[in-house]
Design goal:
Elements: E1 3-6, H1 11-23, E2 28-32, E3 52-56, H2 62-72, E4 76-79, H3 86-91, H4 94-116, H5 120-125, E5 127-133, H6 158-177, E6 181-186, E7 188-190, H7 199-209, E8 213-216, E9 222-227, H8 228-241, E10 247-250, E11 255-257, H9 258-272, E12 285-288, H10 303-309, H11 317-330, H12 332-338, H13 341-351
Parallel strand pairs: 1-2, 1-4, 2-3, 4-5, 5-6, 6-10, 7-9, 8-12
Antiparallel strand pairs: 9-11
Helix pairs in contact: 1-8, 2-4, 4-6, 7-9, 9-11
């Protein structure tokens, strides 16, 4: 028995692979294209571990995916592979269309062919779990109820539109062909191995480097924050007992405005790694022009997952954010290796100097 994980060298995918193999001896076949956010250093602790088989490849490569399925005969596929940064999708939407829509289509086609050829028992047991985002639901008003699984899709960025399209394809392959799928839509993840272009790792990196801490607009955009290891435990739970064809929202029950996140990270760094001049890190906060079409609020109602499958997050935001800051402070070599010239060039271009 084995599982096939796509995008397993990225932020959430690598955390999932590490957690899976910490709790199970079931092998993982890990397919990742290794774009800018895919980092094999995330998986360095698995070197020499025969339970982990890494394959460099693209979900859009039908022949490659088909060969892996035929060779390893996995009982499940968990699809993390995606272009996932809203800001990058605004500047270059083509990659998001290619990976999130066309790539998902090719992946589904390969899985459909593989699943159709399985023996009856293996066919009944097989699952494809597609990992998606709350951003497909659009933006909430201040007093609107949180997103449920029945919310209408209203994506507002090229990224969220491409993920919405991939969700629809997965649903259609279940409805039309009977493919046994599960879909999860998660809120904003944070934690170890997060590529430092996203808010929380960017704050930590820039704080320590004495650089400005960029805050979009007024900083009052609200997100629901989910510790990545809680997300991984939710995926395992859905894979084990989720109802075929169903969608499950995964959230942390932690709605917070971005500016509060910035001040929380600054306060933790003031405590754990004070500036040499004694000044608070909050003096580095710099307000920048808001990005186009910036959604004002996301919030996840994860009661379906709790009521049907008994899952709740183990971390509060206070415990999760402390663990995250400590991890970055203790893993500066990883951070330094990620901070390539290409990354610095992109941040300089996007946020300015």
């Amino acid at each position: 028995m084995s599982i096939l994980v796509t995008g397993g060298a990225g932020f959430i995918g690598s955390n999932f692979v590490l957690d899976w193999l910490a709790q199970s001896d079931e092998p993982v076949i890990n397919l990742d294209k290794l774009t800018y956010a895919g980092n094999l250093e995330n998986l360095v602790s698995l070197r020499g571990d025969t339970r982990h088989v890494f394959v460099h490849g693209d979900i859009g490569d039908f022949d490659r995916v088909s060969q892996l399925l035929a060779e390893h005969q996995p009982r499940a596929l968990i699809n993390f592979a995606a272009e996932s940064h809203v800001d990058r999708s605004i500047h270059g939407p083509g990659d998001f269309i290619a990976t999130n829509i066309v790539g998902t289509f090719q992946l589904l086609e390969a899985v459909r062919a593989y699943w159709g050829g399985l023996a009856d028992e293996a066919r009944a047991d097989f699952r494809l779990l597609h990992v998606s985002t709350d951003e497909v639901y659009g933006s909430l008003g201040k007093d609107d109820p949180a997103f449920t699984e029945t919310n209408r899709y209203e994506p507002n960025s090229p990224y969220s539109a491409s993920k919405a399209a991939s969700d629809h394809l997965v649903r259609a392959y279940h409805h039309t062909y009977g493919l046994p799928v599960l879909t999860t839509n998660c809120s904003n993840n944070y934690g170890p191995y997060h590529f430092p272009e996203k808010l929380i790792p960017l704050l930590i990196v820039n704080s320590l480097a004495g650089k400005p801490l960029p805050v979009y607009g007024d900083g009052q955009q609200v997100r629901d924050w989910l510790y990545v290891k809680d997300h991984c435990s939710a995926i395992r739970r859905v894979l084990a007992d989720g109802r075929v064809g169903e969608t499950y929202n995964v959230g942390g029950w932690n709605e917070k405005p971005n500016l509060e996140i910035v001040h929380t990270v600054c306060a933790l760094l003031d405590e754990l790694r004070p500036r040499a001049d004694g000044q608070p890190y909050s003096t580095q906060i710099t307000y920048v022009t808001d990005r186009p079409g910036h959604d004002r609020r996301y919030a996840i109602d994860a009661r379906k997952l709790e009521q049907e499958l008994g899952w709740r997050p183990a971390e509060t935001f206070a415990s999760g954010i402390r663990k995250t800051v400590v991890w970055y402070l203790e893993n500066q070599p990883w951070v330094n290796n990620v901070l390539s010239g290409g990354y610095r060039d992109w941040v300089a271009k996007h946020y300015g100097n």
